[in-house]
Predict the 3D structure of the following.
Amino acid sequence: MTPAARLQAAIEVLDEVIASVREDGPPADAIVTRYFKHRRYAGSKDRRAVRELVFRAIRHTAERPSSGRSAIVGLAEDEPELLALFGQTRGPDPLHDGETGAPPSSVPAWLIPELSAMVTAEEWPALLERAPLDLRANITKISRDELLDQFPDAAPTTISPWGIRLPSDSRIDDHPAFMSGLLEVQDEGSQLIALACGAESGERIVDLCAGAGGKSLALSAAAPGAMILATDSNRARLSKLRPRAERGGAAVEARLLNPPNELDELADWRDTADVVLVDAPCSGSGTWRRNPEGRWRLTADRLDRLIAAQERLLDIGAELVRPSGRLVYAVCSLLSREGAAQIASFLERHSSWISEETAIAAGRPDGAGRLLTPAHDRTDGFFVARLRRPC
């Protein structure tokens, strides 16, 4: 494919991405893969080049463009070498007089008032930087120093005692250390959420929104002998936990829940958990550097629904915590209503509960919790708070 043909392919992929966003369909990565399944003539260099163009265009603008062409024209206005490809053979049609593309922006305009006051405009560029690849050493099998020896390009993470960091384009899925369960892919911020739980051997721990189980596995490694229950209402995501646990030698029980019957299905854990982690569904605004199209997918109605779900899950988690036990709330979000305001609302409903410092030397105080950001902490964005039930 010529450079012009690659640019036209990027426009076509972006048209499909925009349609998928409107319909709440597959993510951009899946669309790129599907696009090239039907175009076998494209070589690996072509596929990489088109994918790079697609994601540069997605990162370029926070507002959902009207079309793939609008997204690419906007990118080309900042990358003039692309402008020369319009009108070439097999490339995009020539630019029209006065044609402009999607304007550059980092944060959707409607979301700016929702951001935590700490996420100032100076921090916004970091929200779209390419994220590194962070790994967590499975400390039941290997030390971090021993793992570092197996990755010449790695450096230790600065805050998590379990993490190592590789360049963003690294691949480890066929590395012997991964295949033998010596490590898990996990952003340093996510590792710190597990550390904030302060898990200890012998404790009863519930990971209420476990997803594929990354934090459950980290808790198991941090507290050998703890009884860990990983729950979720998404069967497909939760099904990924078992093979990961078997590979890493982790003892974690998985339980599929069926809303709105969670408390009935968790009756055997009510008032008995030492720790309940509520890593709630959220806007994902803290992970835009990994998923920049998330800015296009989020709407005001969806945000309101997520905030209502977070409130409900916090109240469910509180029912499981034993007297003097701990409730840890986390969201990969930089929005106040999902973070500090959510915990303030919980403490109004549960006035006897006590907020306490998390056991992590990261982030900045934000209400009753702490906020980690890509610019300040070089992690994904997370809000985390730890609460204690009174005796």
Q: What stands out?
A: The longest strand covers residues 321-331. The mean pLDDT is 95.
